[in-house]
């Protein structure tokens, strides 16, 4: 299949998928928290654009609501909340270089290949475009997990968590033209509550261990001390 | 159908009521009343289902069939009895200065929030809403795990939040794939309705559904507490308030398993390979054995019984994985008896920890001498959960074993071994706690043990004879899940 032969919408979706994937990799290698949050907001913006584009091309007005929800939640509210937290804790100056950046990035690349491998069976029933879109979504989910594993700051964990959510959202928009409205509202509500809870948690963790480094959360384990 | 709406409406009113005016003295009693009314509504619903069979609401949003109706009643029942226990327990915790008025308000409000999420998971016909409600249950309970605000409880809550949040995100991916498979055969609006999916299961693309099921099992499996995704479970159970441990173990785990089985029914309809069953058997057996082994090295009494929950959930997952009529029937029965027994145990454990002033098993001694009711309650509860006849757990475990010997005889020794290890693991800890001399300064507490007596009585009854209507439901549900009846 030649990409120039497909219609505008398909081409746009493919480029969006590539860009969303790219932002995930950018987040993965990022040592500075403020930049991490910025890239996360960028990913949210890409999602908003994709949703708006889908709403326009498919003539599906309820997707505009999803686009607005994404814009408000993932581009404005959550990044604002995280940024405030970073400033409050004075963490924006110290750079947390990843210990084994090369390994993490290579791991990320292999996760992407793995996503294509896992979803390959579905190519028999649909277009290769769908495979690309779904595989990128899955790899965004997996890269989000890798981000949570490789970073030690609670803020980075929240970014990873929310970027997993982004990957799922992208899959829902591209592969199925959005979930039914009631489900989408429910998911958005859950994300909102989760974001608020994260805010409360930061406060609690800060007051209890005076830091947002999750490595210090190590009291409960099965190893006898 | 009104009954089903009522079941959802009452906890919703509860959330708002407690959030607004939760500072009253009699707040615990109001919680008992709300749960009691809800229990009556579920019984009304159950009678409707008994008379009319499966009910599908007119807008197709809710589906009540023999598989979920008994779980709904069970949820309401455990919610009700736990609220009876929680009222004096939380008041005592407040007297000890562990809690403030505001946190108590949060506790009761979120108690109702959790119940609402559980009812929604069970009644909804929409697989997407099921996911939303499951995530909602995490969100409602996460603040309850950290209710005491100790560093340990905050760590446990953070772990619970992150692990379950990430885990359940996998289930959403699975649900999206399910939807993707469904829209290919048409009808966008209704494509996530379970009843529609089930009717058209044969036309769904088996490859996509198999991939979807892997994600769904991992996702909801995190909430079931399947090894190796179980790490949050002992922490959340040991650090949260005890009534929460009782409902988490008794209800949340069951409902997550319910979600997996609902999805498995779709995959089984579409695909002819038994991949879903094998996956569940593998994860189930692993959880069962690991849970049993970990019982031995526990020091905290609530952690001990949370590992016992992992072990039992593993066994149920395994039984649903085998998939024959007998195994399915056994798993449905085991869901009921485990839920009743485990919540009863957590109630006694809560009192025992208040008696001894600690959750450390090394320090809890001589319970029977200090307060016989609690000591005997704990002992009998443990006997029941370990699978002693004539309790119901024995019946269901025996049936699982029978089904295993019939379908996969070479796995039966592993099951027997696991049951033996678990038995030893429980009793080496429980025996010194209930017998022996009481240590100095250990005083009885005000305890209401009616929930325990009723729960264990029911388990005993189910072990001796299963009442006709319940057996009918189990058979109907078994027919629905496995394609034929066991009897």
- As a percent range, the share of helical residues of chain B equals over 70%
Radius of gyration of chain A: 18 Å
Span between N and C termini of chain B?
A: 30 Å
Poorly predicted residue ranges of chain B: none
Number of domains of chain A: 1
User: Unreliable segments of chain A (pLDDT under 50, ≥5 consecutive)?
Assistant: none
Quaternary organisation of the protein chains: heterodimer
Q: Write down the overall mean pLDDT of chain A.
A: 85
Return the string of H and E elements of chain A.
HHHHHHH
* Largest sheet data of chain A: none
Question: How would you sum up this structure, described in words?
Answer:
The complex is a heterodimer of chains A (225) and B (487). By secondary structure, chain A is mainly α. Chain A has one domain (30-92, 115-214). Chain A has seven helices and no strands. Chain A is globular and about 55 Å long. The N and C termini of chain A lie far apart (60 Å). Chain B has 487 residues and is mostly helical. Chain B contains 19 helices and two strands. A two-stranded antiparallel sheet of chain B has the order 1-2. In chain B, strand 1 (55-56) and strand 2 (63-64) form a beta hairpin. In chain B, helix 5 runs antiparallel to helix 6 (151-183) and helix 13 runs antiparallel to helix 16 (392-407). Chain B starts with a helix and ends in a 5-residue tail after the last helix. Chains A and B meet through helix 5, helix 6 and helix 7 of A and helix 5, helix 6, helix 8 and helix 9 of B.
């Amino acid at each position: 299949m030649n990409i120039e032969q497909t219609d505008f919408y398909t081409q746009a979706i493919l480029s969006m998928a590539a860009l969303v994937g790219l932002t995930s990799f950018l987040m993965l290698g990022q040592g500075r928290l403020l930049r991490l949050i910025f890239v996360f907001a960028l990913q949210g913006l890409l999602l908003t654009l994709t949703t708006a584009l889908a709403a326009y091309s498919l003539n599906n007005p309820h997707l505009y609501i999803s686009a607005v929800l994404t814009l408000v939640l993932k581009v404005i509210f959550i990044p604002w909340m995280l940024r405030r937290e970073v400033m409050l804790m004075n963490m924006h100056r110290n750079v947390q270089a990843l210990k084994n950046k090369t390994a993490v990035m290579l791991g990320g690349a292999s996760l992407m290949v793995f996503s294509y491998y896992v979803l390959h069976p579905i190519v028999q029933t649909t277009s290769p475009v769908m495979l690309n879109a779904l595989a990128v979504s899955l790899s965004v989910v997996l890269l989000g997990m890798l981000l949570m594993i490789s970073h030690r700051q609670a803020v980075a964990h929240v970014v990873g968590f929310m970027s997993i959510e982004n990957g799922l959202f992208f899959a829902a928009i591209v592969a199925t033209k959005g979930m039914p409205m009631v489900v989408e509202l429910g998911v958005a509500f859950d994300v909102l509550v989760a974001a608020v809870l994260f805010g409360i948690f930061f406060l609690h963790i800060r007051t209890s261990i005076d830091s947002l480094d999750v490595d210090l959360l190590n009291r409960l384990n099965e190893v006898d001390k | 159908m009104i009954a089903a709406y009522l079941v959802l409406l009452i906890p919703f009113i509860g959330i708002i009521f407690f959030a607004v005016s939760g500072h009253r003295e009699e707040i615990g009693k109001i919680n008992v009343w709300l749960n009691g009314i809800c229990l009556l509504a579920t019984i009304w619903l159950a009678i409707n289902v008994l008379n009319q069979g499966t009910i599908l609401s007119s807008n197709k949003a809710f589906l009540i069939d023999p598989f979920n109706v008994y779980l709904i009643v069970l949820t309401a029942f455990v919610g009700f009895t736990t609220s009876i226990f929680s009222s004096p327990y939380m008041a005592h915790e407040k007297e000890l200065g562990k809690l403030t008025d505001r946190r108590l308000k949060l506790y009761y409000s979120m108690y109702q929030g959790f119940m609402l999420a559980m009812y929604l998971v069970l009644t909804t016909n929409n697989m997407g809403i099921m996911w939303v409600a499951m995530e909602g249950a995490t969100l409602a309970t996460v603040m309850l795990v950290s209710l005491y605000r100790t560093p340990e409880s905050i760590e446990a809550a953070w772990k619970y939040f992150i692990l379950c949040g990430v885990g359940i995100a996998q289930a959403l991916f699975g649900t999206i794939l399910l939807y993707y498979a469904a829209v290919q055969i048409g009808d966008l609006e209704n494509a996530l309705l379970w009843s529609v999916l089930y009717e058209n299961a044969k036309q769904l693309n088996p490859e996509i559904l198999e991939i979807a099921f892997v994600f769904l099992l991992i996702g909801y499996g995190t909430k079931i507490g399947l090894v190796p995704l179980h790490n949050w479970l002992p922490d959340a159970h040991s650090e949260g308030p005890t009534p929460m441990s009782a409902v988490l173990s008794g209800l949340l785990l069951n409902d997550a398993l319910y979600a997996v089985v609902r999805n498995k029914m779709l995959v089984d309809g579409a695909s002819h390979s038994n991949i879903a069953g094998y996956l569940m058997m593998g994860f189930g057996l692993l959880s069962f054995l690991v849970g049993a082994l970990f019982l031995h090295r526990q020091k905290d009494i609530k952690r001990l019984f949370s590992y016992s929950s992992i072990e039992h959930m593993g066994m149920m997952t395994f039984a649903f994985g085998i998939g024959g009529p007998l195994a399915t029937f056994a798993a449905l029965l085991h869901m009921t008896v485990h839920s009743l027994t485990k919540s009863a145990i957590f109630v006694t454990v809560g009192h025992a920890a208040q008696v001894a002033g600690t959750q450390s098993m090394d320090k809890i001694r001589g319970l029977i001498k200090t307060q016989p009711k609690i000591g005997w309650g704990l002992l009998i509860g443990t006997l029941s959960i370990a699978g002693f006849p004539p309790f119901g757990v024995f019946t269901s475990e025996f049936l699982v074993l029978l089904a295993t010997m019939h379908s996969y005889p070479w796995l039966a020794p592993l099951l027997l071994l696991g049951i033996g290890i678990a038995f030893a693991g429980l009793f080496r800890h429980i025996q010194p706690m209930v017998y022996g001399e009481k240590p100095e300064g250990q005083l009885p507490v005000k305890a209401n043990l009616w929930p325990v007596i009723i729960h264990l009585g029911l388990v005993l009854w189910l072990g001796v004879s299963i009442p006709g209507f319940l057996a009918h439901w189990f058979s109907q549900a078994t027919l629905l899940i496995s394609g034929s009846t066991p009897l």
